[in-house]
Amino acid sequence: MKEVLKMRNLAGLLCVLFLAVQEGTPVKVHPRADSTAFKFLKMGIGARYLAMGGAGYVHGDDPSVGYWNPAVYLNQSRAGLDWAHWFYVQGIHSEQLNWSTVLKTVQEGNFEVPAECLGVYFNSLYTGKEMELRSGEGERFAGIVHPLEPIVPPEGKFGASFFCFNLGYARRINERLRWGLNLKLINGNIYVYHAWGICMDVGLC
Asked: Can you spell out the DSSP letters for 8-58?
């Protein structure tokens, strides 16, 4: 029992130190370095967990829990697959595909429980080419005649798209403690601008 408590205290301390380092890192690069890019990642995955205020951090038994906490993959008893399509205002769409499976099981008392799990999810947000491109040339008096009809027609239209591909892994340390890891590949496109990012999440439960 003492060994379990020591392990949990050590894991908690490491988690706090990791979060403290991550909290200060973006500020050293730029004061607003973490305030603009890839905001779609904060929209959440899974209607069930969104309705419960993000309860997927600690509880769940379907493939979409990997977004909230990769360690919770170990709550599953078998492989699973789910897909969701979201439609927002102004022609904004989102697609979410989640899959997970149990790699290894162990015996705990009279029950066989997952010891290792693997999960994958794909999350995207996109629009059609509906946003108007305007450079501002010739629009000095735009809106004077009619506020919704600028003098100069748009120079074209463009869209935006973002996606995240995530590979997750979870492993049971003992009957009280589990850990998980997510590796993300992220891409964003707006007009002629493109951005790529790599991200890592660590979870405990």
From this structure: HHHHHHHHHHHHHHHHHHHHHH-TTTTSSTTGGGGG-S-HHHHHTTSGGGT
Q: Can you tell me whether residue 80 is helix, strand or coil?
A: strand
Q: Is the pTM of this model over 0.90?
A: no
CB 122 within 8 A of CB 164: yes
Helix %, strand %, coil % for the chain, to 5?
25, 40, 30
Contact 5, 198 (CB under 8 A): no
Per-residue pLDDT tens over the stretch 57-106:
778 888 989 899 999 999 988 899 999 898 888 788 999 999 999 999 99
Q: Is the dihedral of CA 10, 16, 17, 18 positive or negative?
A: positive
Query: Residue 134 to residues 137, 139, 187, 190, 191: CA-CA distances in angstroms?
Result: 8, 9, 25, 14, 12
Count the Cβ atoms, other than its own, within 10 Å of residue 185: 13
